[in-house]
Design brief:
The structure holds three protein chains of three kinds. Chain A is 53% helix and 0% strand. By secondary structure, chain A is an all-alpha fold. Chain A is flat. By secondary structure, chain B is an all-alpha fold. Chain B has a domain of 167 residues: Up-down Bundle (Four Helix Bundle (Hemerythrin (Met), subunit A)), CATH 1.20.120. The radius of gyration of chain B is 26 Å and the shape is elongated. Chain B starts with a helix and ends with a helix. Chain C is 63% helix and 2% strand. In chain C, helix 2 packs parallel to helix 5, helix 4 packs antiparallel against helix 8 and helix 12 runs antiparallel to helix 14. Chain C has one domain: Up-down Bundle (Cytochrome C Oxidase, Chain A). Chain C is built from 17 helices and four strands. The chains are: A mainly alpha, B mainly alpha, C mainly alpha. At the A-B interface, helix 1, helix 3, helix 4 and helix 5 of A face helix 1, helix 2, helix 4, helix 9 and helix 10 of B.
């Protein structure tokens, strides 16, 4: 009985391309690093600017800060962690955690939709029997 | 995938020759083995994302509910030190990535040096963290039974008189305002020395008697309305600091684990241990280290830069 | 060494040496304790998990003895709390979650996929030691004073007020979680990357699909409960408070985070058992699992949907009613894939040549009992009825039906089905059947009355009850002893078979699957040559698109070459 070889990215059905992990050049690492430093500067500057004055909503600061943080994280994941040169399977598992964690956000809906959102807060000691 | 990129892959993309790896018995070829290790490490990082994710959720939840408290309490966190920590960690991430690169090309000494630099950065991070923690604990902000928000706020406001002409965010001083009101009402002997333990009745707040201010064995507070509101705010601040210490503490534990792994790798490289004939252990520790960096990238703006 | 072939194995030979296999290859204690062979690790897990099961069963016995009379004096209030907590913690964290994956999954999965071992054999060994450490910690906590919070560790009782060994028990559960994660990690990579040539995802046995889905749930869910429980320990030891209502925290947040894992956890418990049932029913019906793709997709659907229904454990808390509605609907939906699988299994048997072996009896038991458990779960998913039934014995009966009637039956079915493969011996079939029947009858006698008593209003975790409930409790206790006998019997006849059982051939059930192409017991490295898979999963005969028989199976039932164990060392 012939024994085959598990090849490349696990067993690839006939005709499917064989995926291999590629590795980046040194310059990519340094480029990413300086981009990250730049974004850090942006993050800190953002703290000192009150966007709610410019754009009429208190939430802009945190939203932009999170967007910047996400860009930084994506840069680290793609370049430092070499997901960009990885196989599809690696992409899948790299993405899965960051997506799945948002499922816990359903817990938010509980607190949003309670009839009196302050009902569960600490009432103060004098109210206790 | 083009033939050219495959060729590049085979020679590591930069013309240097990739090191030879050993094939374990359960695998059929090196590509399968390498990809297996990386997928394995990533699935472990998925668990780490979920691990921190629950804390991020708790943080976000309480931040939404108690935003004013968070706005006020975050002033205790030193933005300068936090930024420095971020800088240190990002640099360590670069050196870790470079270490992996050179490991793939079998340049042992460079790898050991880069890993050592990463460790130094990590130690620096922990050192800065130590400084931050000790200052917090001294201010009475460790959220255990010695949590003393009143003392911390008082000290803070003594050192941070608002600049003339600068408009203060009215939401940013909820607890401090209540504390000032309570003090002005003068019904309260409020300073609670840490060495005077509260009696159970006082702790539970059931006791509303006024005794003389010179009473040193029991600590009694008459709860004015302002004092009540202050205590509520202090409770919420205690949650803020609980989450702060838990998240940064957990992150710190991960940094320490990373240091241990990297020191082990350095020793193995220096002693030419056979495990590091392959670059994969270094790559896996590198992946772990980058993840630790990513957690901090999110932690920093969320905790330190609340505005 | 002898060049024994399959024909020789099974015949009594006085002087022919036994062929080399994973059991007799090396015999020192060190070779077992430091093994990286997935098969040996599985055997060690089997011993550990069985110890845990028996201890958890002992606690259950104590509960039943206490509950036989309305105001039992066998246990004090405090002791009773500790006993049911012990029962829950041991059974859930140390039996139900690891049993099928760590014992049967570890042993069979690589064989089934045509691999020489799991992807990370040393991680596998670490997983076993971590489990053992956790078990020791857990037992130390329980024996050294006990925990009285219930296995759910609800705050603020567990974080502030309880005076028992909460921290140590939680740490044991935390450590056990890591063991689970390491196993799951191993399975995921093995299934993705180490299938035999020709084995596409849809030629894989459904047991492997089940292991994959289980492992995904493990990776995505376990860390959440780990950190949540860690926060409880932090609150107990350091005084930090996140769930403490006195400072503005919310105890319901603990419940959200706890059940975010613990609901998917029940699918970690049941999906592997369902995976086993696939194998057992196919082999004992000599027929392909009906609707293979549906079963595979249902398995993944259960894994995904299982993550968005946790709120049904919290209908009676201050959780928002609107969110409760959403969870209720989703909980109804999550029952659908499970039902699909039950229907498919039943249909598989139709016009199959069904053999009533002991493992098939366990599988039948699974079908009936899991169905009852699942249907009663629907009463609990419905908001209105749940208000009355939650925290009563109805819930207790429901989850025992799915966990014992489901997971435990699945585990026993798999243990019996693969016992010849694992040990090279056949167990006594008569005792096997007796045991299966006893388990089934004893189980129903124990837990059917609990539905009644719960519906009538008896709360769970209480040990005093109104005298009018006593009849049901006496039945339940009686059933528990029959069940206990049924569970204990396999210990004896299976161990007995190790020395005195008839030697097994490589495929005693004449089943389709790569594991049946190895010797019984398999060689240390499983396959001398990795086979190439050209047949469908469960290909007992080749099917046309309409399901009819068009040709003989391509599975090499009688291939001698693959059966020969390797006499020489496999050189790395």
């Amino acid at each position: 009985m012939a024994s085959g070889h598990g090849h490349g990215a696990g067993f690839a059905p006939e005709g499917a391309p064989i995926e291999r992990i590629t590795h980046p050049k040194l310059s990519l690492y340094f480029g990413t690093y300086f981009a990250l430093l730049g974004l850090l500067v942006v993050t800190v500057i953002l703290y000192f600017i009150d966007l709610s004055k410019m754009w009429n909503w208190v939430g802009w600061n945190i939203v932009i800060a999170l967007i910047v943080a996400t860009v930084k994280a994506v840069l680290v994941v793609l370049n430092f962690m070499n997901v960009k040169g990885g196989t599809r399977l690696i992409w899948l598992w790299a993405a899965l955690g960051f997506i799945w964690v948002f499922l816990m956000g359903i817990i938010f809906l509980d607190y949003q939709f309670r009839p009196d959102s302050t009902a569960w807060q600490w009432q103060g000691l004098t109210d206790r029997k | 995938m083009s033939l050219k990129s495959m060729e590049n892959a085979a020679v590591g993309g930069s013309g240097h020759h990739m090191i030879d790896q050993k094939l374990s018995v359960q695998f059929e070829d090196l590509d399968q083995q390498n990809e297996s290790y990386i997928v394995g490490m990533w699935s472990f990082l998925v668990t780490e994302v979920m691990f921190f994710g629950a804390l991020f959720l708790a943080y976000t939840l309480y931040r939404t509910m108690y935003f004013n408290t968070y706005l006020e309490a975050h002033h205790f966190l030193d933005v300068k030190l936090g930024t420095l920590n971020t800088l240190v960690l990002l640099s360590s991430s670069l050196s870790a990535a470079l270490a992996v690169f050179y490991a793939q090309h079998g340049q042992r000494i460079k790898v050991a040096l880069l890993l050592a630099f990463t460790c130094i950065c990590a130690f620096g991070f922990m050192g800065i963290k130590f400084v931050e923690y000790t200052s917090k604990i001294n201010e009475g902000l460790l959220p255990d039974q010695n949590f003393n928000y009143a003392k911390a706020l008082t000290v803070f406001h003594e050192h941070h008189k608002p600049a003339v002409g600068v408009e203060e965010n009215p939401r940013a001083n909820v607890a401090w305002d209540q504390l000032e009101l309570a003090r002005k009402a003068n019904q309260v002997s409020f300073v609670e020395p840490m060495d005077n333990p509260k009696t159970p009745e006082v702790e539970a707040g059931f006791d509303n008697r006024v005794t003389s201010a010179s009473d040193t064995t029991t600590r009694v507070v008459v709860k004015s309305a302002a004092r009540e509101r202050f205590d509520i705010e202090a409770g919420k601040a205690k949650i803020f600091f609980s989450i702060y210490f838990c998240m940064t503490g957990l992150h710190g534990i991960h940094v320490i684990i990373g240091i241990i792994c990297m020191v082990t790798l350095i020793l193995m490289y220096l002693t030419k241990h056979e495990a590091v004939d392959d670059y994969m252990p270094t790559e896996m520790v590198g992946l772990y280290w980058h993840f630790v960096d990513i957690v901090w990238i999110f932690l920093f703006p969320l905790m330190y830069l609340i505005s | 060494m002898s060049t024994a072939t399959l024909k020789d194995v099974g015949k009594p030979h006085d002087k022919v040496k036994e062929p080399l296999n994973y059991l007799n290859a090396t015999n020192t204690i060190k070779s077992w304790l430091f093994t990286v062979d997935h098969k040996r690790i599985a055997i060690m897990y089997l011993v550990a998990v069985s110890v845990a099961f028996l201890l958890g069963g002992l606690a259950a016995g104590m509960i039943r003895v206490e509950l036989t009379v309305p105001k039992g004096q066998f246990l004090t209030n405090d002791a009773y709390n500790k006993v049911f907590t012990a029962h829950g913690v041991i059974m859930i964290f140390f039996f139900l979650i690891p049993a099928v994956p760590a014992v049967l999954g570890n042993f069979i999965l690589p064989l089934m996929l045509g691999a020489r071992d799991l992807a990370f054999p040393r991680l596998n060994l670490l997983s076993f030691y971590v489990y053992s450490a956790a078990l020791v910690m857990g037992l130390a906590a329980i024996i050294g004073g006990g925990v009285d919070t219930g296995w759910t560790f609800y705050t603020p009782y567990s974080s502030v007020y309880s005076n028992s060994n909460v921290a140590l028990t939680i740490m044991a559960a935390f450590v056990a979680g890591f063991s689970s994660i390491f196993t799951g990690l191993n399975f995921i990579v093995t299934i993705h990357k180490m299938r035999a040539p020709g084995m596409t995802w849809f030629k894989m046995p459904l047991f492997a699909w089940a292991m994959y889905a289980t492992s995904v749930i493990i990776m995505l869910g376990t860390p959440v409960v780990a950190i949540t429980l860690a926060l409880v320990v932090v609150e107990r030891t350091l005084g930090f408070g996140i769930f403490s209502p006195e400072i503005g925290g919310d105890p319901v947040l603990f419940q959200h985070l706890f059940w975010f894992y613990s609901h998917p956890a029940v699918y970690i418990m049941v999906l592997p058992a369902m995976g086993v049932i696939n194998e057992v029913i196919a082999a004992n019906s000599k027929k392909r699992i009906f609707g293979y793709e549906f079963v595979a997709f249902s398995t993944m659907a259960i894994a995904v949907f299982g993550f968005i229904v946790w709120g049904h454990h919290m209908f009676a808390t201050s959780q928002s009613m609107y969110l409760g509605l959403v969870f209720s609907v989703l909980s109804f939906l999550v029952a659908v894939p499970s039902a699909v699988k039950i229907f498919n299994w039943a249909t598989t048997m139709y016009k199959g040549s069904v053999e009533l072996t002991s493992h098939m009896l366990y599988a039948f038991g699974f079908l009936g009992l899991f169905t009852i458990g699942g249907l009663t779960g629907l009463y609990l998913s419905s908001l209105a009825t749940d208000i009355h039934l939650t925290a009563t014995y109805f819930v207790v009966a429901h989850f025992h039906y799915v966990m014992v009637g489901g997971t435990a039956m699945g585990f026993l079915a798999g243990l019996h089905f693969w016992w010849p493969k694992m040990t090279g011996r056949m167990y006594n079939e008569v005792w096997g059947k007796v045991s299966a029947v006893l388990v089934f009858l004893g189980f129903n006698l124990t837990f059917l009355p609990q539905f009644v008593v719960g519906y009538l209003g008896m709360p769970r975790r209480y040990h005093f009850y109104p005298p009018e409930f006593q009849l049901w409790h006496v039945m339940s206790t009686g059933g528990a002893f029959v069940l206990g006998v049924g569970f204990l019997l396999p210990v004896f006849y299976l161990i007995h078979s190790l020395k005195h059982g008839e030697k097994a051939g490589s495929n005693p059930w004449r089943a389709v699957g790569l594991e049946w192409l190895t010797t019984s017991p398999p060689d240390t490295h499983n396959f001398h040559e990795v086979p190439v898979v050209t047949w469908e999963a469960y290909e007992y005969f080749q099917e046309s698109h309409h399901g009819g028989d068009v040709g003989p199976s391509r599975f090499p039932f009688d291939d001698e070459a693959v059966h020969v164990s390797s006499d020489e060392e496999v050189h790395v």
